[in-house]
Amino acid sequence: PPERKRFYQNVSISQGEGGFEINLDHRKLKTPQAKLFTVPSEALAIAVATEWDSQKDTIKFYTMHLTTLCNTALDNPTQRNKMQLIRAAVKFLETDTVCYRVEEPPALAELQRNEWDPVVAWAEKRYNVAIGSSTSILGPNIPASTKETFVSHLASYNMWALQGIEYVITQLKSLILSMGLIDRHITVEKAVLLSRLEEEYQIQRWGNVEWAHDYDLCELRARAAAGTLFVHLCSESSTVKHKLLQD
Question: Among 1, 47, 165, 181, which is most buried by a count of CB atoms within 10 Å?
Fold first, then answer.
């Protein structure tokens, strides 16, 4: 949506019957489908309220990734159930960025081995699965047992967290990097770098468009970080004790 002039002074949260609500002055925040904006944890409510409070003269909706993810979880515009979300996430294994390798140029092939092999090895050990990689245009042949293991693992997350996981996967184009990020095995900066390895290689070799590369990099980091934070906050059972938006 286009930018909108900020129409509120104060942002606060309150606890309602369905969870935690966001208040813009005396108005209750609503979703695009006009549902009451209610989130399952106080920590997530604080994070969303901070997004709204940090807006200046205009509301830049495109910077409010947590609010957007909550709207998606509440409105479920694609009307998918939990298993459909899980299957969509696991399907990314078939085209996972870190599983597709090049043979030429040798320097890029070596870079992929050095940077991607360790995270693939981590995932294989962490989940007790076989993943592998391939230089074929068809990609690697992922065993059915590997896919089912990831289906079972993702089933342990709730619907809200799954929306966040799928969001991170679509940003990084990789289930493996996303799980490494969510499991705190790699940082946001590392996950983004690994997802853009070929592009970064080309930039090192040929240079980059002066501002566009940095902007894209920051945007991708922001989205990946927001999605990961969303997953963790939606999986959080404890209540945040400190006050909202303290000076």
Answer: 181
**Do residues 218 and 224 make contact, with C-beta atoms less than 8 angstroms apart?**
no
41-69: pLDDT as tens digits: 999 999 999 999 999 999 999 999 999 99
Residues near 151 by beta carbon (within 8 Å), at least 6 away in sequence: 86, 87, 90
DSSP, collapsed to helix, strand or coil, labels residue 22 as strand
Q: Cα–Cα distance between 176 and 185 in angstroms, integer? A: 11
Block residue for tokens 């599983």: 99
Give the whole-angstrom CA distance, residue 235 versus residue 230.
Answer: 8
Residue-wise pLDDT for 100-128, tens only, equals: 999 999 999 999 999 999 999 999 999 99
CA angle 221–224–229, rounded 5-degree value: 120
What residue ranges define each of the domains in the chain, with the CATH number in brackets?
11-75 (3.30.2180.10), 82-245 (1.10.3580.10)
